[in-house]
Task: inverse folding
């Protein structure tokens, strides 16, 4: 591999070559059969879609039965959970729970089937490259901020400042 940095910065060349080679060696290894990816996707989809949604379904069905709402109106309950007495924050938590189950399932399946750690899969190395993580957060923050400012100048009446500490604190923990 060609050195990208001058001789004074030889240690950067060694880091770059080691990181690139480890990533490429992981990709070309024997643990990358197509069936492993299919199984990983299927197990994560089943876990998130079915197992992760069980608490949400139980809460919605229980509250529908208590409120006397016909079960054929489940679509309306999903659009407005307060209709059957479910807090919007709690409903959001239950919906996000399915995604958390899916993520934990992917991490577990990667360890079992692919025999890799999650950080190796995401980064290509055993360590997390925090500079890249913070760079990614920074880029997204700048994009969202610029789009927010543009939308504010296009139509300032479209934004409403509404802060209620009572509803913000639970949302902060979710």
Result:
């Amino acid at each position: 591999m060609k050195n990208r940095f001058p001789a004074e910065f030889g240690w950067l060349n060694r880091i770059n070559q080691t990181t690139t080679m480890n990533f490429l060696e992981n990709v070309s290894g024997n643990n990358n059969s197509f069936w492993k990816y299919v199984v990983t996707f299927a197990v994560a989809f089943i876990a998130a879609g079915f197992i992760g949604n069980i608490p949400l379904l139980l809460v919605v069905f229980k509250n529908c039965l208590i409120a006397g709402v016909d079960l054929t109106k489940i679509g309306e309950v999903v659009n407005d959970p307060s209709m059957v007495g479910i807090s919007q924050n709690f409903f959001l938590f239950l919906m996000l729970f399915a995604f958390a189950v899916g993520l934990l399932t992917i991490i577990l399946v990667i360890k079992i089937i692919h025999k890799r750690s999650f950080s190796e899969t995401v980064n290509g190395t055993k360590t997390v490259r925090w500079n890249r993580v913070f760079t990614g957060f920074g880029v997204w923050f700048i994009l969202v901020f610029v789009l927010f400012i543009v939308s504010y100048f296009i139509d300032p009446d479209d934004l409403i400042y509404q802060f209620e500490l009572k509803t913000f604190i639970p949302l902060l923990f979710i």
